[in-house]
Design goal:
Layout: H1 5-11, E1 19-22, E2 30-38, E3 43-51, E4 64-71, E5 74-80, E6 92-100, E7 106-113, E8 121-127, E9 133-138, E10 146-154, E11 168-176, E12 179-189, E13 192-198, E14 205-213, E15 219-226, E16 234-240, E17 247-253, E18 262-269, E19 275-281, E20 288-294, E21 305-308, E22 313-320, E23 326-332, E24 336-342, E25 355-356, E26 364-372, E27 377-385, E28 393-401
Antiparallel strand pairs: 1-28, 2-3, 3-4, 4-5, 6-7, 7-8, 8-9, 10-11, 11-12, 12-13, 14-15, 15-16, 16-17, 18-19, 19-20, 20-21, 22-23, 23-24, 24-25, 26-27, 27-28
Length: 405
């Protein structure tokens, strides 16, 4: 069971001003696989897999998807979004992601297998600031094969012609036999799907996409890209037009250093379209986390910057504020989670130094998710098993800042 917030802070030094609490209100069973989002008005949305009735923490059968919204640090609602499954079969709802607009509307996506046949589709829910489900649906038009690893990004100010709209974009792996590609879909409102297109190249292997959206509504997408099928991955990058999914930033590598493997990217964009990418790389011979920032037109602001080469550092997360300062987070061998801040030019002066966000030194902390508000406020969620009983909780860290001042 998680420790109380006050005791947690006493056991391990956290970044200045940070408090940690449990995101899920029910602590029985197993809660993990969390993701987090924030907006410019102080809202924070957390989503997770909830298996509260499970007696085997390693089995995610009958897992549900929950979301909780915090407004200025206080819980506004907590809601189950999935709807169970066929009785007597091993149905699952897994791999959630969450986005949040500046009006407080939340969009959640996940892998959905309610009939327990082992085949996943990508579904979404749109939730109002009061916690009411405004709409839902299946994202992928073709249910053949497997649709995996969904990510969502929400337009911060919706569709200009409709102030009440909730506009968002979704990306996922489309697996057809031995062929894996990355697809994307864009919505201008709760039930108005504008496009579904192939985001990656059609040849080779493409995995683990991530997505970001600025106020333009265009979708920036990154993924593990091996279009020539040589077994070596780069970080693919493309931008798709809001209205029809047309390519507006040609497919290219986000990383400038070649060699080795470049994998597991994360991307974030700010209101004006500046964006940053972080990923794992071993091109120096030592595995580590690297990042690179870009202007809204796609021009790099600097070369690849080494974030950390700590042994076991993996699975980066990234955020960016409206001044284009960035924060990169990572997990170290499933035992603790870290974050570090950067200036728009890739330097670190005045930004958050490399800092653990793990709240205790015992047990396991992993599955980091990170978001940065337009003002540089850092929000972190991660999975915690500090007592080693294999039952996880999702912890939420609020109050961080990407500044040493």
């Amino acid at each position: 069971m998680p420790l109380p917030t006050v005791l947690i802070a006493a056991l391990l030094a956290l970044p200045a001003g940070v408090t940690v609490s449990t995101a899920n209100s029910v602590a029985t069973g197993d809660q993990d696989g969390g993701a987090v989002a924030t907006n410019r008005n102080g809202d924070v949305a957390v989503v997770w897999e909830d298996d509260r009735a499970e007696s085997n923490p390693g089995d995610n059968t009958n897992s549900e998807i929950y979301v909780r919204l915090f407004r200025n640090g206080t819980s506004a609602y907590e809601k189950k979004l999935s709807a169970g499954g066929t009785a007597g079969v091993k149905w699952k709802h897994v791999s959630p992601d969450v986005g949040l607009d500046d009006k407080g509307n939340t969009v959640v996506v996940w892998n959905d297998d309610p009939d327990g046949n082992g085949t996943y589709n990508v579904v979404y829910r749109v939730i109002s600031p009061a916690g009411t489900v405004l709409g839902q649906g299946q994202v992928n038009a073709d249910s053949a094969g497997q649709q995996l690893s969904p990510k969502v990004a929400v337009d911060p100010d919706g569709t200009a012609s409709n102030p009440s709209s909730v506009a968002f974009s979704v990306v996922w792996e489309d697996v057809q036999g031995t062929v894996t590609r990355v697809k994307a879909a864009g919505y201008s409102n709760v039930a108005t799907k504008l496009y579904e297109v192939l985001a990656s190249q059609s040849t080779g292997a493409h995995h683990l996409p991530d997505i970001a959206v600025s106020a333009s509504g265009d979708a920036l997408i990154v993924w593990d890209e091996d279009s020539d099928g040589n077994g070596f991955f780069q970080i693919g990058l493309v931008r798709l037009a809001r209205g029809n999914g047309a390519v507006t930033l040609t497919r290219r590598a986000a990383n400038s250093n070649g060699g080795g493997q470049q994998r597991h990217p994360a991307i974030a964009a700010n209101f004006t379209g500046d964006f940053t990418v972080a990923w794992e790389s071993d091109h120096t011979g030592t595995p580590g986390i690297w990042s690179r920032s870009f202007a809204a037109n796609g021009d790099p602001k600097h070369g690849d910057v080494e974030v950390t080469r700590t042994a076991g550092a993996a699975t980066p997360a990234v955020g960016i504020d409206d001044q284009a300062n960035t924060v990169v987070g990572w997990t170290v061998q499933g035992q603790d989670v870290w974050a570090r801040g950067f200036n728009p030019n890739g330097t670190t002066d005045g930004r958050l130094p490399a800092q653990t966000y793990s709240n205790v030194t015992t047990g396991r902390q992993d599955q980091l998710s990170l978001a940065v508000s337009p003002w540089g406020e850092i929000v972190v969620s991660y999975t915690d098993d500090n007592d080693g009983n294999l039952y996880d909780q999702v912890l939420l860290a609020l109050g961080g800042s990407n500044s040493q001042w």
